[in-house]
Amino acid sequence: MGNISFLGCGSWGGALGYVVAKKGIPVTMWHRNQEIVEALTETRTHYLVSSLTFPDNVSFTSNIYEAIHGADTVILAIPSQSIRGLIRSCQEIWMEEQTFVNVSKGIEIYTLMTVSEVINDVLGDTYKNIVTLSGPSHAEEVIEGHPTTLVSASPNTKAARAVQKLFSNETLRIYVNADIKGVELGGSIKNVIAIAAGIVDGIGYGDNTKAALLTRGLSEISRLGAAMGGSVTTFSGLSGIGDLMVTCFSKYSRNRFIGEKIGKGKSLTEILKEMSMVAEGVSTAESVYQLSKKYRIEMPISHSVHDILFKEKDPKTTIHELMSRELIEE
Fold first, then answer.
1. Which of 4, 118, 129, 288 stands 20 to 30 A from 75 (CA)?
2. 148-153 and 130-134 beta bridge pairing
3. Residue 128 catalytic?
């Protein structure tokens, strides 16, 4: 796919850049912080994941024009709430023939758009090569070569297959899916349920509770996703239940970590001050809350997470209220 550029060099962007570079493909990685760029260039070691050492065919820059100009494929690996600003600030640099690959998992708060919708909203519908790469994955395990599967989603089959080929190797298997909306929604909403899973862990509840939470949480994801135009089958796949499971159980999950700390009595403000990486589920909790009202979808778990995060509602009281709701059919 020619020249590959990553906009964002956090843990996930770094891991995917490493995957591509190990195939012998030249990679440019952009980070806005010049000091971090200089450290990466000198040490070749990732600043967040010490086990990640970049090969020599990876170059680093803080010059956004240098990263974008001439790139055939641009991977957007920054937090979802920052993507509109970045796309807009570089509006005169983009070329229609470039392929955009979104690897973030979030829903823009003020517009309630998924990332692919944000790109089209800024650049127009003439940009057809937009792909979202998503699924059950943590950077640390991809770097270590643990077998991992992802989904390359786009209505543009040619672009989706090109991205599939770009990232696939002997330990990373990529599937193709035309349902980009469903894939983006599954990857985003599961972060809200993961915060709930962490709260369950923090309080000290067991497997029964976690299993119930994941099952009912998936039901919420599927209901809202279908109402917004996603395919129900997508939510039973890798970017739905697969991503939900890994995020709710993993020690690497930032969203589960936030929930666990809340379950143990810490405030959201305290937790975020201590974190060096972005947890997309916090902003997505607000987006999902607004979307559920817009589409009139009942999402009691997601609403509860919203109230715990932003209204400082007591987690144990909230869970008791969830369990005491009117009895219904499954």
1. 288
2. antiparallel
3. no
Residue that is written with structure tokens 């070749």 in the block: 44
Q: Are 160 and 177 in contact (CB under 8 A)?
A: yes
pLDDT digits (tens, 9 = 90+) for 276-292: 777 899 999 999 999 99
What span, in angstroms and rounded, lies between the C-alpha atoms of 315 and 188?
Answer: 22
Q: Is 2 helix (H, G, I), strand (E, B) or coil?
A: coil
Q: Considering the entire predicted model, what is its pTM?
A: 0.95
> Which DSSP string do the residues of 265-299 spell out, in sequence order?
T--HHHHHHH-SS--HHHHHHHHHHHHHHHHT---
Q: Where are the beta strands (DSSP E) in 156-276?
A: 172-177
Q: Are 93 and 119 in contact (CB under 8 A)?
A: no
Per DSSP (E only), the strands in 63-210 are 73-76, 99-102, 130-134, 148-153, 172-177
Out of 128, 158, 181, 190, the active site residue is: 190
